Amino acid sequence: MPDILQEDSRARLKFVAAFAVMYLVWGSTYLFIRIGVADIPPAVLAGLRFLFAGTALTIAGFARGGRWPDRRDWVTLVVLAIGLVVIGNGVVTWAEQWIPSGEAAFIVAGSALFIALFGTLGPRGERLIPVTVIGLILGFAGTALMLLPRIRGVHGPLAPALALVGSSCCWAAAAMYSRSRGFTASPLVFTGLQMLLGGSVLAGIALATGQFGRIHWTLPATVALAYLTLFGSGLAYATYNWLIHRARPAQLGTTAYVNPAVALLLGWAVLGEELSPVAFLGVGVMFFGVVIVNLRRRRPSRLLTKTGTGA
Asked: pLDDT value at position 131?
């Protein structure tokens, strides 16, 4: 009996530690992107991060007996590499040259709203219930409030913020496509190859636009790249792959509103970032809408619970 109790205690501790990684590491990626883009051009920062992490995860996946993707998997891989890595993450990295990290995290959390909206489409579509409709209205209204100071030209440029909204929409569309396709390759191999493909495209963009010639290898930028590679991509993705086999979808869905809060707190504590009163109100309204949408989602898939977790 003592051995069983000790084993249960270790399992619970491991479970709690895994969620701590998801909340803290993915919540902090926005801060480190903000630090990194000050000295490393965005396509370089995102490209190198995913090339390095993708290589490590792919090797680890095959070392554990992972299977090579089939032809159908490769189609899905290309779509996800473009939708999630190149547009989903690459645009976030580009936009954080102008957008504070906490604000960016909350705008990206809106992907949960697009997921619920797109979830009504196709043969597996789910009919929206009234509470979910209310959550969507609140969520999108909150997003509009966050953008209002930029629309009025009193809190920085509008274009990067709109790009983040478009990036969230693209992320959601790619995730829904993935749900309809699925994959047969092992999760680590599939994730690693997705990163490698997306990272290669981002590195190609960096080469074509001369961004490699504008790198300044300062200590903060180097630390940011290392953190995003080792922890933001490598550790967090591996942890997520472990959790999706053990945690309930509702538990995984909590990252959609915990991680942006972590990002907002870190941005304020480390970089002194502040939101205007109107934008802060928008954060609260959008946050409430996302919570409602996540709590009322009926059949969330394992891939969809990734939304809003981190950049």
From this structure: 81
